[in-house]
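Supplementary Methods S3. Complex input for the inosinic acid-bound model.
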Amino acid sequence: MRDYHDFLGEILISEEQLQARIAELGEQISRDYAGEDLLLVCILRGGVLFLTDLMRHVTVPHAIDFMSVSSYGIGARQRSGQARINLDINTDIYERNVLLVEDIVDSGYTLEAVLALLRTRRPKTLRTCILLDKAERREVDVPVDYCGFTIPNAFVFGYGLDIDEYYRNLPFIGVVDLEKYESA
Ligand code: IMP
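Predicted complex, serialized as structure tokens:
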């Protein structure tokens, strides 16, 4: 596996910027759900780092659960317009406050599919907390209730986001230099 320095275009969001913004989001969520019960639903795998950092700043009592939805790799960026649910939550969400925690929204198809499924279970509230919003790539209108950063149309990696399943552990968000990545 290659050293990421070989294809890192630039660091788009530093570790410090990420942590500062995530703390703000956690405080905002804590204010908005004060006195309420909350379930954070993390979309695997990309949302894992975001969830674990975010929940440290959420001071209202909350439970967590996980879903896995098919996404795509750097070599196959075409969308079918369909997202597949590979792993469902184990929690009954009827009449509960549900907040979806997701790493990135691109076309919006993944989030749309997850929201449609969860809505059928009649939660009390259903909102979304998205770390990165590639707003200009949106193909379907999906609600982004809490947003970490709006980012330009570039392929990014690190802090939960992968390139062919690697580099999720990096503490920052980097931009892939596609020419360098594909030429090596
Ligand atoms: P959407 O369904 O097009 O909104 O895509 C959402 C999913 O695509 C995310 O959950 C990510 O797994 C993946 N994705 C989109 N853009 C990127 C990127 O720049 N880097 C890594 N994964 C991405």
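The chain has a mean pLDDT of 93. Residues 46 and 161 are 5 Å apart (CA to CA).
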